[in-house]
Automatic annotation (TrEMBL):
Keywords: Flavoprotein, FMN, Monooxygenase, Oxidoreductase. InterPro entries: Aldolase_TIM (IPR013785), NMO (IPR004136). Pfam families: NMO. SUPFAM superfamilies: Inosine monophosphate dehydrogenase (IMPDH). The keyword Iron-sulfur does not apply. It comes from the Bacteria. GO terms for molecular function: monooxygenase activity. This is Nitronate monooxygenase.
């Protein structure tokens, strides 16, 4: 089996420069272990888990794989320091973040030997976390699913590569060996994929929902601000269409209702939810309306991705969904991507005279 060695594989101790992103409700122990056992880097999604659920998920993942894996943490969560202590105690290899973690948290993780890889959406953010000591960054272009920005990977990636000297992992629009070869040609150290891993056999998303994804074309996603107030790429559904045409009052009422459901499900106190809201307000440019609407996200995603209720839920998805038509195992997926990338890199080399 061919392998490709990059700054990412050396940094983390993995066989292949392929990362499975920390998708809420999707990236649990089975998918993460499947990815890591296949030689990639699996990342647990902890934003939709309580602290105790995260502890149990880490323990479960360790029973399924002895390979390196990571945990994605919401940097603005009030219990982020406790979760970081858990990662250190459990010797988790990688801590990834959806927002820039505080400089002291990065220092604490690095001192304990944990690799710190924040996800960023602009070159200036990459420079900031690099100056704070981040070991690498994941940069997602606008093609990517979930929270996303307006700039395509083909332009965002080189802008970040020019701005920092640490390894850069490319995300947004990747699904095969061509993409990996192209990312490496740009100078990236690997690729990260969400939607592609959601559509694997190890993914616990209900089969009926996977079929919903597989039936979609390249034009079948929407970037909506009505889900949680931030640009969020999702599959076109009746619910999304109705949200897009709804007024702000309806969105706030739905968000308040979902906040109550999320509180009941996680056992969080209202004071903790308010603290999290204040932290989000402080660490970003969100309005209070956007903060309140953020309560929508966990419950709307859970309805679709866990409960299989596509009429009541939202299905985060990258544009790449329009090019996917199968449900491979993580091993078959990663092996195929790497083998194809090696062939394409060799073919490029043969063009030289």
């Amino acid at each position: 089996m061919s392998s490709i060695r990059t700054a990412l594989t050396e940094l983390v101790g993995i066989e292949h420069p392929v990362v499975q992103t920390g998708m809420g409700w999707v990236a649990g122990p089975r998918l993460v272990a499947g990815t890591s056992n296949a030689g990639g880097l699996g990342i647990l999604a902890s934003a939709t888990m309580t602290y105790d659920e995260l502890a149990a998920a880490i323990a479960k993942t360790k029973t399924l794989t002895d390979k390196p894996f990571g945990v994605n943490i919401r940097a603005d969560a009030t219990d982020a320091p406790h979760r970081i202590d858990l990662l250190i105690r459990e010797k988790v290899r990688v801590a990834s973040f959806a927002l820039a973690p505080k400089q002291e948290l990065i220092a604490k993780l690095k001192a304990a030997g944990v690799v710190v890889i924040p996800s960023i959406g602009a070159a200036k953010h990459a420079k900031k976390v690099a100056s704070w000591g981040a070991d690498a960054v994941i940069v997602q272009g606008g093609e990517g699913g979930g929270h996303t920005g307006p700039v395509a990977t083909t332009l965002l990636l080189p802008s970040v590569l020019d701005a920092v000297d640490i390894p850069v992992v490319a995300a947004g629009g990747f699904y095969d060996g061509r993409g990996l070869a192209a990312a490496l040609a740009y100078g990236a150290a690997g690729v990260a994929m969400g939607t592609r891993f959601l559509l694997t056999q190890e993914s616990t998303v209900p089969d009926s929902v996977k079929q919903e994804y597989l039936a979609r074309g390249l034009q079948d996603t929407t970037v909506s601000r009505k889900v949680d107030g931030m640009p969020h790429r999702v599959l076109n559904t009746e619910l999304v269409n109705s949200l897009e045409h709804s007024g702000s009052v309806r969105g706030l009422v739905a968000a308040a209702r979902n906040a109550s459901k999320f509180k009941a499900m996680t056992g969080m106190k209202w004071s903790t939810l308010v603290k999290d809201g204040l932290a989000m307000r402080k660490s970003s440019d969100r309005s209070w309306q956007q903060i309140i609407m953020a309560a929508n996200t966990p419950m709307l995603l859970k309805a679709g991705l866990v409960d299989g209720d596509t009429a009541a839920g939202v299905l985060a998805s990258g544009q790449v969904v329009g090019l996917l038509d199968d449900l491979p195992t993580c091993k078959d997926l990663i092996d195929g991507i790497v083998a194809d990338a090696v062939k394409r890199i060799d073919a490029l080399g043969a063009l030289r005279h």
